[in-house]
Design brief:
With about 110 residues, this protein is of the alpha/beta class. The protein has helices at about 10-15, 30-35, 40-45, 60-65, 95-105; strands at about 1-5, 20-25, 50-55, 75-80, 80-85. This is Thioredoxin.
Length: about 110
């Protein structure tokens, strides 16, 4: 999973234009975000058709506002430049919730 400290609108357009892209909006201070860390590698492995990015919400606040991401951890998925799904709220996510969300987009 590639980390992005500061996501600009231009960078967002660039990284989401081709293929399936999963954006995880997170922050270092967020305990519910850290809860995801142990199982993210397996989720990434189970979805080889997607490129995963972990976005620092605090360093990317303008894009987060533009995408209406006010709670973290949150996932937004793109396919060839178009948003195809989102799991956006402030609740802690389980491995099963994230897997079910991603599977619903296949």
């Amino acid at each position: 999973m590639e980390g992005i400290k500061e996501l600009t609108p231009e960078k967002l357009k660039e990284i989401t234009k081709n293929g399936k892209v999963v954006l995880l909006f997170s922050a270092t201070w967020c305990p519910d975000c850290r809860f995801l860390d142990p199982f993210l590698p397996q989720i990434e492995k189970d979805n080889p058709d997607a490129k995963f990015y972990k976005i620092d919400r605090d360093g990317s606040i303008d894009v987060a506002k533009e995408l209406n991401i006010f709670g973290i951890p949150s996932f937004v998925v793109y396919q060839d430049g178009k948003e195809i799904g989102r799991l956006v709220n402030k609740d802690r996510k389980t491995k099963e919730e994230v897997e079910n969300f991603l599977n619903s987009l296949k």
